[in-house]
Design goal:
The chain is an alpha+beta fold and 381 residues long. The chain has three domains: 128 residues, PAS domain (Beta-Lactamase, 2-Layer Sandwich), CATH 3.30.450; 80 residues, Methane Monooxygenase Hydroxylase, Chain G, domain 1; 146 residues, Heat Shock Protein 90. It is 56% helix and 21% strand. The protein is built from 13 helices and ten strands. The strands form two sheets. The chain has a five-stranded antiparallel beta sheet with strand order 2-1-5-4-3, sandwiched between helices. A five-stranded mixed beta sheet has the order 6-7-8-10-9. Helix 6 packs antiparallel against helix 7, helix 9 packs parallel to helix 10 and helix 10 runs antiparallel to helix 12. The radius of gyration is 34 Å and the shape is elongated.
Length: 381
Amino acid sequence: MTPSHDHAAEKLEQREAGLTESQRLAQVETALRDSEERYRELFENSRDAIYIHDLNGRYTSVNRAAEKLTGYSREEILGRHYSNFVRPTYLKTVRENFCRKLDVPLETTYETEIACKDGTRKPVEVTSRMIYRNGEPVGVQGTVRDISERKRAQRALQTYSRRLVNAQEAERENIVRELHDNIGQYLSALLLGLESCARLPQLPAAAVDQLSYLKETTKQLELDVHGVALELRPTTLDDLGLEAALSSLTREWARRHDERIRAVFNSTGFTKPAERLSSDVEVAIYRVAQEALTNVSRHSKAAVVSVILARDDRNVQVIIEDDGVGFDVENLMSDPIEDRRLGLVGMQERVQLVGGEFKIESGAGTTIVVTIPLQKAYAAG
């Protein structure tokens, strides 16, 4: 420290030493008033709604942004319970977050919807934390952000994604029809012609061998074309429904792997074939199972894989489970260029587009669970 700095510090100490107790208290009070004034200014001028409610859930303070967001005046909000402003569908979520903060001192962020004075409802994101005094919780402070624009963008993206998926499926259908109607017929005609040539009299042995080779090659090509058509769009899915299509998929997949991996299919709740799910839901579940089986064959080193399809009074669910080596889900999902990550993201997006939930667990083996509420499974499309 330089001599000038030493001198300044000495003068400050002398000045502070000369203050009386009342002067010190006055300084502290002034600092507190300044701090409160700055907080009040930030509180009132925040673009996000800010609130404080007591442990009974009744509001004790709100800012101007809260009035603008809800349409209620400050006087109409203060003293009322948060349940008067949260839509009933979301009350459970709000209560659960409140209870979590009572158990553990943490900040929670969640989405909900509020009911405004004019009867409209707004989607909002709430971030809140417990307020403590002398080590005891006394209330909750939170910020509320209007996310209407974000939700509109998400809906637009979902609509675009749904159209893209539907266009892909339609194109797959067209390709399958082309394979069946044109290439399939040409291959059948070629096979008949080769068989006819093979019956010609006095053919040299070399020609007979060549014709035999060409017939086998053509038969294999027919099988390959049929396999490609099944991968693109199985006619079983359109004609017989999800249960028959998944059963056929599992069986064909096991055949292609020469029983190297044992595949098992089970289903419950599909005793009435006429009760079809919507086309969107059937396709989404089928594609998830198809991608999951592809991942099993490429990465898992599994001995057994099971595909379980179940429907009850509330949900339709598919579970794909293997006993392979597994993988670190969190690390894989954070890798932006990993092929398998893209496959998992694609599965997740397909399920979300039809209103379902996608879960994956991996360690000693991998389990994928898709759950779609039955109401949405019948209504989607």
